[in-house]
Automatic annotation (TrEMBL):
SUPFAM superfamilies attached to this UniProt entry: Nucleotide-diphospho-sugar transferases
tRNA processing as UniProt keyword: no
Top-level taxon: Bacteria
Native source species: Streptomyces marokkonensis
Name of the protein: Glycosyltransferase
Keywords: Glycosyltransferase, Transferase
Entry-linked Gene3D superfamilies: Spore Coat Polysaccharide Biosynthesis Protein SpsA, Chain A
Family to which the UniProt record says this protein belongs: Belongs to the glycosyltransferase 2 family.
Sequence ranges assigned to domain Glycosyltransferase 2-like in this UniProt record: 7-131
The UniProt record lists the keyword Transferase: yes
Signal sequence bounds: none
Length: 298
């Protein structure tokens, strides 16, 4: 069942055991996809371990922690029409990469497909799955699944050329909600984003993570995206909603301070989305306000 339409890209930083488990699972896939790993300056022997245990994996070592931009670096090396992302603590289920490639082959206007996420070791659905499945974004009848306003990088297959044309992940956002800006730019370029319930990725959350820093970056990046792409009215509403709902703590204050300090470059790069794409995002606002999975309160 070898299927070389899709390359898998993984970024990692100081999570050697998790990464090796992920690479073991990817090596077992019937599709036998090419795999590229960007090691974001790990200091725990990650690079040596990958070279020793998975010599067929292409290993990139930029020498510093690039965050999500490490994916951009890897995509430059991709020679397949599709690229699948997963994190170092997640892996694709057998057959799902071929299923995603079939979907993209059959629907030329679909730019990305996001899979169902099962949280291990229990194998339960991630809470975000219900929101993806029930997405309220209006879509044409031919779309093979629900239309999405954004995607989850750890569970998505994209067209390689569409990713490159949209510019990949913005270098300033680093990690934490970095997908929202790229997703909007893909949509502005004419692509549809969809969810496929019959595709699966497994996520075994690593305990090696700074959840407070990730939350601060998530708030900051949401604010940056909002003012980079949304019209003034929706941008102001979303900003005020965040200000009312995030915890009054150091992480939130840091996020708002960093977002405010960046106003000069944000205004320079501001490019409001086309009306049809903005309409899709507005359709998501009620669900975003009520979402527990997407909240910044934890």
């Amino acid at each position: 069942m070898t299927d070389l339409r899709t390359t898998v890209v993984v970024i990692t930083h100081n999570r050697r055991p998790e990464l090796l488990r992920t690479l073991d699972r990817l090596a077992e896939l019937p599709e036998k996809p090419p795999v590229i790993v960007t090691d974001n300056a790990s200091t725990d022997g990650t690079a040596a371990a990958v070279a020793r245990h998975h010599p067929d994996v292409r290993l990139l070592r930029p020498g510093r922690n690039l965050g999500a931009v490490g994916r951009n670096l890897a995509v430059r090396q991709v020679r397949t029409p599709y690229v699948a992302f997963c994190d170092d603590d997640s892996w694709w289920a057998p057959g799902s990469l071929s299923g995603a490639a079939d979907l993209l082959d059959g629907h030329p206007a679909v730019g990305s497909v996001t899979a169902r996420i099962l949280v291990e070791p229990e194998g339960t659905e991630d809470p975000i799955v219900r929101e993806l499945r029930d997405s309220p974004v209006p879509h044409p009848d031919w779309l093979p699944g629900p239309a999405l306003g954004s995607f989850l990088a750890a569970a998505t297959v994209l067209r390689t050329d569409a990713f490159r044309a949209a510019g990949g992940f913005h270098p300033r956002l680093w990690l934490g909600g970095e997908e929202e800006l790229l997703a909007a730019d893909l949509a502005a370029n004419g692509w549809w984003l969809t969810y496929a319930d019959d595709l699966t990725i497994h996520h075994h959350p690593s305990t090696v993570r700074d959840s407070t820093l990730r939350r601060a970056h998530g708030i900051r990046n949401t604010l940056w995206f909002t003012w980079l792409r949304r019209p003034a009215g929706p941008a102001l509403r979303r900003t005020l909603h965040l200000a009312r709902t995030v915890p009054r703590d150091t992480a939130s204050l840091r996020a708002f301070a960093e977002a405010t300090a960046a106003l000069p470059w944000v205004l320079r790069e501001r490019r409001v989305l086309p009306p049809e794409v903005e309409a899709r995002l507005r359709s998501l606002e009620p669900a975003q306000r009520d979402s527990k999975a997407r909240s910044y309160t934890g």
